[in-house]
Amino acid sequence: MIKEVIVVEGKDDRAAVKKALECEIITTSGYGFPKGTIERIKSAQQKRGVIILTDPDFAGEKIRKKISQAVPGCKHAFLPREKALKDGDIGIENASPESILQALEKVRTETATDEKMFSNSDLIKNGLICHEDASSRRDFVGRILGIGYANAKQMLNRLNNYGVTREEFEEAVKNLK
Fold it and tell me: By C-alpha distance, which of 117, 125, 115 is closest to 156?
């Protein structure tokens, strides 16, 4: 049982999460949130906390960002793309209950901080940018750290704002080799 309220995109995502565990869920109905949705999410965040679990695609990232900006301090769970893929369709609704639970086990809390532990030099040094396999390397590291796949700019933002420690990062990149 998870005490936080899980935010997903649609009713099929809700059904998939309900198969994985008993919890309260808020759906955004895609990017154009119905009236009152952000207020419900804010209320849930104040009372119990919120975990955002959106599709691992462009639209899911936009929804995640929109919620994060409106409701600070949310937790984030990321599902790897291949765990959410079925017949060319990407979405939480395609994930197995086990994959959803694994994503929720690696939940990260977003914290806005001026102190930046990681920089582009960390990404370059570890082949996460300026490397022929940088994209797949970022995918691997994001998976281990529970911060999902990201382009270089998003990866740096997530490393600095999702509570990733230097030790966790170094352990994750050590597994690349």
Answer: 117
Whole-model pTM: value is 0.87
115 pLDDT above the threshold of 90: no
Distance CA 140, CA 134 (A): 10
136's tokens: 């797949």
CB 111 within 8 A of CB 161: yes
Q: Could you tell me the sign of the dihedral formed by the alpha carbons of 141, 142, 147, 153, in that order? A: positive
| Domains, in order of start, for the chain | 1-110 (3.40.1360.10), 114-177 (no CATH)
Pairwise CA distance, residues 41 & 166, whole Å? 31
Whether 112 has a pLDDT exceeding 80, the answer reads no
What DSSP letter does each residue of 32-44 carry, written as one string?
SPPTTHHHHHHHH
